[in-house]
Design goal:
This protein has about 120 residues and is mostly helical. The protein folds into 2 domains: about 40 residues; about 60 residues, 434 Repressor (Amino-terminal Domain). It is built from 6 helices and no strands. The termini are far apart. The relative contact order is 0.11.
Length: about 120
């Protein structure tokens, strides 16, 4: 395949199809090099046209908890006591700067995600 910039949806679809065919190519081969370049072009196109909004901070915490097989009780000491953890995860209370720092350090969730605005429930 001739490697060209991805400018249209048709170009994008063709690039995806080609990448699927050569995805498992050896990294030190001609097809491996092509796959690496196509991946970069596809990523660039997706970043431009398929932007993904940052998740709700509390949903991000819950997703990471699931990934790490953590329970609500595992956040005691990171967010605060048992009742504070419950209040935060149920959107009754907002995350504080200290909570965000600890969540970033322990759960490896970017502070830029955790500082996003979200609505509290009543």
């Amino acid at each position: 395949m001739e490697i060209r910039p991805i400018k249209t949806e048709k170009d994008y679809d063709k690039a995806l199809e080609r990448l699927e065919l050569i995805f498992d190519a050896s990294p030190d081969s001609k097809e491996g090099d092509e796959a690496e370049i196509l991946s970069l072009l596809i990523e660039n196109y997706e970043n431009k046209y398929y932007t993904i909004e940052s998740p709700d901070p509390i949903e991000a915490i819950k997703i990471r908890m699931e990934e790490m097989n953590l329970k609500q009780k595992d956040l005691i000491g990171i967010i605060g006591g048992k009742s504070r953890v419950s209040e935060v995860l149920n959107k009754k209370k907002r995350l504080t700067v200290e909570m965000i720092r600890e969540l970033e350090r322990i759960l490896h969730i970017s502070a830029s995600v955790l500082v996003n605005s979200y609505k509290l429930t009543k």
